[in-house]
Write a structure and sequence with these properties.
This protein is of the alpha/beta class. The protein has two domains: about 120 residues, Rossmann fold (3-Layer(aba) Sandwich); about 240 residues, 2-Layer Sandwich (Dihydrodipicolinate Reductase, domain 2), CATH 3.30.360.10. Helices cover about 30% and strands about 25% of the residues. It has 13 helices and 18 strands. The strands form three sheets. Strands 7, 8, 9, 10, 11, 12 and 13 form a seven-stranded mixed β-sheet that branches. Strands 3-2-1-4-5-6 form a six-stranded parallel β-sheet, with helices on both faces. Strands 14, 15, 16, 17 and 18 form a five-stranded antiparallel β-sheet that branches. Strand 15 and strand 16 form a beta hairpin. The protein is globular and about 70 Å long. The chain binds L-homoserine. The site of L-homoserine has 11 residues, from helix 6.
Length: about 400
């Protein structure tokens, strides 16, 4: 690809404007935004009107534009635009996690068919260069565990509610005003957004294609004042964690809130910061921390992808062809703390291993190991709050060996 790139930008919201700021303040990068396609021409804009169009064809049909930078939040329209851009021989940079997580297989086919790269570092953890690191640095080290705070809005809410005593609604409102939250914030608080990101990470870290809807998802929207008090009383914090755990040839992955003690790598990650802890077989634990949401941090990741196109960088997805890649499994157990009103029917028999419980007038709290299938059932109920226990590591269900079965 030529050194000087001409960009067609689709979307000029929080991230688009962040990219514009980052781009104009970066020295030495010979890159120009030719045109910006927007949906709402009536909105007042910070740039001359000549930049803007509502017709995507003005970008796609412009032979001078080398790269389409797609930064809108509608995943279906984004997918249409990305396909058209690749068909027209343009490289693509996108930050649309839902679109990437949903269409990753097709994206890779189109990349090969049309010979143009698609990069999406800005789709996962904002400014943290986690995808590039998984692709390049960890291409041979076997990763045994990956745990991350991958959603800035929910981390912001959890921080403000537990450390500053703000109400959930107030903290969510601030996350929206600051441009961290999705247009539909249920995607954040109900954990959908982290499943998109975890799905993408599983491909780059473990070579596995697990669709977002195949992942168990527990959000933070059912956490109660009693959960926050329990955390405080036990010197714990609650973090919404996207985790993947390898046990031999099995890989267990889920998104759920968890209690973290002060010894945990994610304990001191606050506000809109994200963090990913990666445990390699030989490198052991490494922690990546950075701002995970907001215009400038995400814009900086998008810029880094644009810059990488100048030296023809593309993802090689090397882990997907390694023979030793694990198999995604839901046949596992994990230790949880659940709380509900005393009238809700949950009993020790629902647990594979029950550890104990307490009941007062307002809350019934039970702790123990459950199967992922029970966890999935409970995650769909609106009368139970579920938090992974401190130190909980999901484990595969032990299948008895033939000789043990025979002896029994
Ligand atoms: N809503 C997302 C978040 C934006 O809060 O992390 C960045 O992907």
């Amino acid at each position: 690809m030529k050194k000087k790139l001409t960009l067609g930008l689709v979307g000029f919201g929080c991230v688009g404007q962040g990219l514009y700021r980052v781009l104009t303040e970066t020295q030495g990068l010979e890159t120009e935004i030719r045109k910006i396609c927007i949906k709402h021409p009536e909105k007042s804009r910070s740039l001359p009107t000549a930049y803007f169009t509502t017709q995507r064809e003005e970008l796609l049909g412009d032979p001078e534009i080398d790269v389409i930078v797609e930064l809108i939040d509608d995943a279906d329209t984004a997918w249409e635009i990305v396909q058209q851009a690749l068909q027209r021989g343009k490289a693509v940079v996108t930050a649309n996690k839902k679109m990437v997580a949903t269409h990753l297989d097709e994206l890779r086919v189109l990349e090969t068919k049309y010979g143009r790269p698609v990069l999406y570092e800005g789709a996962v953890c904002g400014s943290i260069p986690i995808i590039r690191n998984l692709e390049e640095y960890y291409d041979n080290d076997r990763i045994n565990r990956l745990e991350g705070i991958v959603n800035g809005s929910t981390n912001y809410i959890l921080t403000k509610v537990s450390e500053e005593g703000k109400s959930y609604a107030e903290a969510l409102g601030e996350a929206q005003v600051n441009g961290f939250a999705e247009s539909d914030p249920t995607l954040d608080v109900e954990g959908y957004d982290p499943t998109f990101k975890l799905s993408i990470l599983l491909t780059h870290a473990f070579g596995l294609r697990v669709r977002p809807e195949e992942l168990i998802r527990v959000g933070i929207h059912r956490l109660s004042a009693a959960d926050l008090s329990f955390a405080k009383a036990n010197h714990l914090r609650i973090r919404l964690v996207a985790g993947a755990y390898r046990h031999g040839d099995k890989l267990i992955a889920l998104v759920a809130p968890r209690f973290v003690p002060d010894t945990h790598a994610l304990y001191s990650v606050r506000n809109e910061f994200n963090a990913v802890s990666v445990e390699g077989l030989f490198a052991e634990e490494q922690l990546f921390v950075g701002k995970g949401a907001g215009g400038n941090p995400t814009g900086s990741a998008v810029l880094s992808d644009i810059s990488a196109l100048r030296y023809d960088y593309r993802y090689e997805y090397r882990k997907t062809t390694q023979e030793s890649r694990p198999e995604y499994s839901l046949d596992a157990t994990v230790e949880v703390v659940v709380s509900c009103a005393p009238s809700v029917r949950i009993s020790p028999e629902d647990f594979v291993r029950f550890k104990g419980g307490e009941r007062n007038r307002e809350t019934h709290r039970l702790q123990g190991e459950v199967t992922l299938s029970t966890l999935a059932d409970w995650s769909r109920r609106d009368d139970i709050s579920i938090i992974l226990a401190p130190g909980a590591i999901p484990k595969p269900v032990e299948v008895p060996k033939q000789e043990e079965l025979a002896a029994a």
